[in-house]
């Protein structure tokens, strides 16, 4: 049995759950590395990362380097004398960092690698209409999410699931997988498998304004999947033309109605209780929506105070 001394690296809530699991299972965490505090809000008050807040609450040693290649940071990291590093939702590490510990550095990634390497794996699995995804652990190497695989766990994506609920399921699944991976390393039982490389590998592109925009000429399934795959964050958006108004709006949840009709694509049909958009082979029925400067609201609340003109449409 190896006596593991672990440095944990991570920043958002997703990483907190994994760190908490390691702490609660009595793992020896000798240091936590997380993002520097960032100014946020109107007062530009410095915000601590979710991982820092948790690490402070349980008295862990915290480092917040701005530059991972900085000599002073590398010396500080070396002085922790860790023999394993675990990375969850952090940033790309320089070789000097990931090759430092005796037992290497492994990463938890929220996809079934080699699919969805990159920044937004949970979103893209839903956007692409996949029916399963999962979590993978792998040893870090020079490239992003390409290292030798250790363990993988699969989960189904439910038909109406959004990225928020899937994120939480994968977070807990990932906690178990990280613990199992650490156990294997501790026992010296790790067997790795190289990731397959082929032309069909799906990529988890960074989300931006362009790839979050709804294309109402796409198939009804693609539109529905995009809305689910971007909810609650960062949210699918489109432009609403309503009389004199041209507004960029966000759609957080919707249902699909597959039916033949003669309405033009993007045209809006509204009643006192329902708002739907005509698409090829059916309608997208909007449930939750956000207009600029307003809070997110259900469609019935919106229709109480907002009028749609007869020729209104979504672009």
Account of the protein in words:
- With 315 residues, the protein is α/β, with parallel strands linked by helices.
- Helix content is 26%, strand content 29%.
- It has eight helices and 18 strands.
- The protein has a seven-stranded mixed beta sheet. Strands 12, 13, 14, 15, 16, 17 and 18 form a seven-stranded antiparallel beta sheet that branches. A two-stranded antiparallel ribbon has the order 3-4.
- Helix 1 packs parallel to helix 6 and helix 5 (121-127) runs antiparallel to helix 7.
- The longest helix is centred in the middle third of the chain and has 25 residues, at 163-187.
- The mean pLDDT is 92.
Provide tags for this entry.
seven-stranded antiparallel beta sheet, Rossmann fold, 315 residues, 29% strand, alpha/beta, 18 strands, seven-stranded mixed beta sheet, single chain
